[in-house]
Every structure is written in C-alpha cells, then in structure tokens.
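Support reply, case 0932

Customer input (verbatim):
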Amino acid sequence: MLQLTGGVATIGNMRVLTYTVHVEPAEEGGYVVTVPALSGCVTEGDTYEQAIANAHEAIEGFVEALIKAGEPIPTEPAPTHPIDALVQIKAQVAA
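Our regenerated output:
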C-alpha cells in the first residue's frame, strides 16, 4: 500500500523520498545540481540528463551515509504551489 506524507511515500517497509533539486548551468559548461534539503549534496553533469542522473545517485549515496551514521534523514513538505520543471524529449526533425 502506498502512503504519502509530505515529501515521503511509504511502500511496504520502504520509504520513497522526494527532494527538490536546483539545476544551474556551470560557467565551464555542463550543469551543477544542488539539493537544498540535503546540505552539502552537490553534483554535476556535462548534459542536463547526466546532471539529473548524477543527482539521483548523489541523493541515494547521501541518504545511505546518513542512515549508516545514525543521523536523521531530512525530508521536505509536499509542495503547496506550482513547480516549474524542465522536460526534455528527443524528436527527429525533417531535413
């Protein structure tokens, strides 16, 4: 059964955590990603897709380290206002 409270969903004995990420173009190219709720959780990627994939890995590793250290896992409240998100697709364009 799925139960959602704030930014945390529970499925069985697993918690599904949702975090806001900030993606900014890097001066040297690529993108830098920060996770405001997880102070110090920062990653990057050469492309937007790579930056988002790296953010998933960085968040998972950050949370795993908190669990191993016996530290609390920060959560975010569920959004109460609209959120802007970028969605990229690949489309073949006629020549």
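We compared this against your earlier run and they match. Two observations from our side: The longest strand covers residues 2-5. Residues 2-68 form a domain with the Double Stranded RNA Binding Domain fold (CATH 3.30.160.250). Please reopen the case if you see a mismatch on your end.
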